[in-house]
Amino acid sequence: MTKWRCMLTSLTLVILGVLSARAQTVVPSSQTPSQDPKDWLRQAFDDAHQRGTDPSIEFTDNKIFSDQELFAEMEELLEVKRCRSLSLSARSSGDKCGDQYDFDKLQNDLVRLRAFLGTQGYLQANIGGLKMEDSGRGLKVVVSIEAGRRYRVGQIKVIGAEFFSAEQIIQLTGFRPGEIASAENIRKGIYEEIKRAYGDQGYIQASADLEPEFKDDPFRPQEGVVNFTIRVDEGKAFSIRSIKFVGLVQADFQMLRDQLLIQEGGVYSKRLMEESLANINRLGLVEEIWEKNVRTSVYGQTSQVDIEIHVREKETP
């Protein structure tokens, strides 16, 4: 699995360098030489809360987005502010919320900021230096945001696809040369749409990987171009060996079977499996079943699968 794929599929898009050596921090007096940096960073937030102050956040090196746009992506911070705006009666009525912004919440918000920059085409953005200052009036967190270049989609090459043509694969991704290269669209196109399309044709083990090539844009000096190589591993097409319902006692087995849009001997289709479950749920004979209630296993070394649909009958009045 490539570094690029790890970054996209995990959707962590974690801020590399937030705890790097070049990040300057205020170290609480309780720190010990062997203490994990994350622990004493959390302690710095706790110390500020004990003094009755809230950490303030300031962005630096940001030349693209307004502070207002960046703060709008910090869901944890917005939730804390919402909680503090509630009256005591509203809090006691069952509205569960936390009114302290701690270091873990900051980390989550930095991940969201990195993801936001990626959706805007800043695929190599860096949220790097995390500087913590104590002015005596409270803790201030200075976050360095270097958006870098904004990238547009360049050339697209497909390798390894046989069942679908290269043109069909590109169409599935939704990539269009010249458009802004959004990290979210890349994730969906490569790791959802392609896999879903193959899964509907029985290629349940198919996968796709992406290799980006970042280049200068000769026509837009402030932007860049990213060429994509999509590598497809189709695997083999699987057919259905058997379908079983597990958990039936009184419900009509044949009635449930009649709702299936797949059958033994046919090609396995993820889409038809989902539609079959929806049909069964509409009957109302069993508790609602979802994809997690379906177990699909490969039979030996063959290209056949066994399907078990686990159901729970509704209690009769």
**Roughly how much helix do the residues carry, as a percent range?**
25-40%
Helix-strand string: HHEHHHHEEEHHEEEHHEE
Give the overall silhouette: flat
Strand arrangement across the biggest beta sheet: 1-3-2
CATH architecture of the largest domain: Roll
- Radius of gyration over C-alpha positions, nearest whole angstrom: 26 Å
Q: Which stretches of 5+ consecutive residues score pLDDT under 50? A: 1-33
- Work out the number of β strands: 9
Taking the alpha carbons of the first and last residues, their distance comes to 53 Å
Strand content: 15-25%
Task: Give me the CATH superfamily of the largest domain.
Answer: membrane protein fhac
Continuous helix count: 10
The CATH C-level class name of the largest domain:
Alpha Beta
Q: Give the overall average pLDDT.
A: 82
Q: What summary fits the major beta sheet?
A: 3 strands, mixed
Structural domains: how many: 3
Question: What is the third-level CATH name, the topology of the largest domain?
Answer: Ubiquitin-like (UB roll)
SS class: alpha/beta
